Amino acid sequence: MSLKFYLAPLRGVTDVIFRSAFERYFGKIDYLLTPFITTVKGKEVALRHLKDIVGSENDRKRVIPQIIGNNPDDLLLLAKHIHLSGYTTVNWNLGCPHPLVTKKKRGSGLLPLPDLVMSILDHVVPALPGKLSVKVRLGLNDDAELERLMPLLNDYPLDEVIIHPRTGKQAYSGFVNLDRFAAAAALCRHPIVYNGDIVSPDGFRSLQHRFPEVERWMIGRGVVHQLTLLDSLRTGTERKGDPVVLRRFHDELFKENGRVLSGSSHLLGKMKEFWGYFASNFNSGKSLLKKIQRCATIDQYQHRVDEAFGEIS
Ligand SMILES: Cc1cc2nc3c(=O)[nH]c(=O)nc-3n(C[C@H](O)[C@H](O)[C@H](O)COP(=O)(O)O)c2cc1C
Fold first, then answer.
1. Does any ligand 1 atom lie closer than 6 A to the CB of residue 168?
2. CATH architecture, domain 4-235
3. What is the rounded CA–CA span in Å between residue 253 and residue 193?
4. Which of 221, 230, 235, 264 has the fewest CB atoms within 10 Å distance of its CB?
5. Cβ–ligand 1 contact at 164 (below 6 Å)
6. Which of the 8 DSSP states describes residue 313?
7. Domain extents for the chain?
8. What is the distance between the alpha carbons of residues 133 and 225, in angstroms, rounded to a whole number?
């Protein structure tokens, strides 16, 4: 069996700067989904909408751009631009749980509406220049919605179906529902990717034991918390991160984000988001995170970071 690992899209975190730096310091991932790109009205897609995917750092064979929307023409327009940028596959987001998104019948807001999903696919699939995959949850409010949708998805030539076994209502709270994942996976004729709460080799082993037929595994928060997690999963043993490597990785994120973000408050905001994940690698995790979140200037921030790395090196 050949296992494949996917980086999950985390909007605000796993952008092109993160993806490239991650692979330089922690090794290649089989596939990387980008955070979602929203459809736009009109006949053209401005370059700024595609800025995360147009650069040559994105390996066109392994990076899969994700799109979100529910208007077939707008979805097609965006997918065509993505195809023109060199990608063969796009992923349609049917999982985003944010109420502002779901209220507009986007993301997981589409899961209770199989007729609408089918009418969109009927329009988009025949005209799509490349391949399409979908990323879904169990439902919006009801965790059996996906089981009702899956037989319909079987009729379309989807490249794969990525399942995060929570409902949209749950967002990221509570537990993944593995029984519902099993039920939905059993109904699916497309290749399945499992996604959700993989954080350790032991947890991964027990998922593999329960779902021996699944070869594709997507990981998001776990790998940002613990940057060596993929290495640990591939080898089956816990790999400790090297603080020197983490420091270099941090410094690259800082430098590259500083180059593209305007103003120090944007840069600080971005780096604070990363520390929400990195801080758990430090003994003083929670208090360190608070100190970093309180930094109001770049000087204060750099001082705190030096202090933190001084603690572990
Ligand atoms: C901050 C954040 C941003 C996310 N952005 C996206 C996104 O753009 N597209 C998407 O399909 N899922 C998004 N997700 C969901 C993740 O891709 C993933 O499905 C979820 O975190 C469960 O996997 P994990 O437990 O391995 O993190 C996001 C999750 C978080 C926490």
1. no
2. Alpha-Beta Barrel (3.20)
3. 29
4. 235
5. yes
6. -
7. 4-235, 243-312
8. 27
pLDDT in tens, 2-47: 999 999 999 999 999 999 999 999 999 999 999 999 999 988 888 8
Six-digit token string for 122 = 């009927």
Cβ of 196 less than 6 Å from ligand 1 = yes
Is the shortest distance between the CB of 8 and ligand 1 below 6 Å?
A: yes
**Residue 68 CA, closest ligand 1 atom number:** 9
Q: Is the CB of 195 under 6 A from ligand 1?
A: yes
Q: Which residues of 148-170 are buried (b: 16+ CB within 10 A; e: fewer)?
A: ebbeebeebebbbbbbbbbbbbb
- Tens of pLDDT, residue by residue over 242-274, are 999 999 999 999 999 999 999 999 999 999 999
Stated pTM of the model: 0.97
10, 160, 161, 230, best to mutate for ligand 1 pocket (most atoms within 8 Å of CB)? 10
